[in-house]
Design brief:
By secondary structure, the protein is α+β, with helices and mostly antiparallel strands. The chain has a single domain, classed as 3 helical TM bundles of succinate and fumarate reductases (Up-down Bundle). 66% of the residues lie in helices and 10% in strands. The protein has helices at 4-7, 10-37, 48-58, 63-88, 106-135, 159-165, 184-195, 199-226, 233-259, and strands at 139-143, 146-154, 169-173, 176-181. A four-stranded antiparallel beta sheet has the order 1-2-4-3, covered by helices on one side. It is elongated. The N and C termini lie far apart (65 Å).
Amino acid sequence: MATRAELISSPFVWRRVHSLMGLWLVLYLIEHLIVNSQAALWLGDDGNKFVRLVNSLESLPYLHVIEIVFIGIPLLLHGYWGVRRSLTAKTNGSRSDGTSPSLPYGRNRAFTWQRLSSWILLFGILAHVIQMRFVQMPQEIQVGNETRYAVHLKDDPKLASLASRFNVSLVQEGNRMTATASSPGKVILLMVRETFKNPLMCALYTLFVLAAAFHAFNGLWTSFITWGVMLSYRSQRTMLPICWAGVALLIFLGLAAIWGG
């Protein structure tokens, strides 16, 4: 006779792990976009809130371990099962020529968009981590007995006044400027601003934010069903506008950082 443990299939466990990691990542995404939105000079107290929040995060002990355990591993687990589901999923939310089923209802279309947004996020997150944590991450340099943080920037008419406002030193090196400051938050703010001076990067990050916002709250809606929080049709309908409000909030926070500098 099969035991209770044997009756629980591996796909069932993986779906629950995938959903649980997704719930955690929604919370992280909200926190991440709240912090990043403060880089908008017109929204985040002229950028000072962004600097303070980043400095607080960067000063955490064992930061790299925290990032791996609480961000990296959940992303890998959620992404692994998400890729498997995307490769095997059969969408039917769009019009068909008659050779395949076509059920263009709202939830079917949402299922299709969830699969499409997962691929955007897969490549977007990889590019984002490589860019922000490796390619453009400020370097620690020693100036006498003081540790300072440095990034390389392209000069522009507003850079000097912004650097002066944040007490950031600028040194001309050919066609580029090296900005150094006593705290990482100041140069990371300039690094974010540097990224979003490029129209192509603004367009790509806008797509990234739109995909992340929809994927997060559509996934949240379905996870409530997965975990038995809302099983009735009425509760599901009630939750939809709340989730759409969450999508709108995340889009606002994300686009503020991109277009508000």
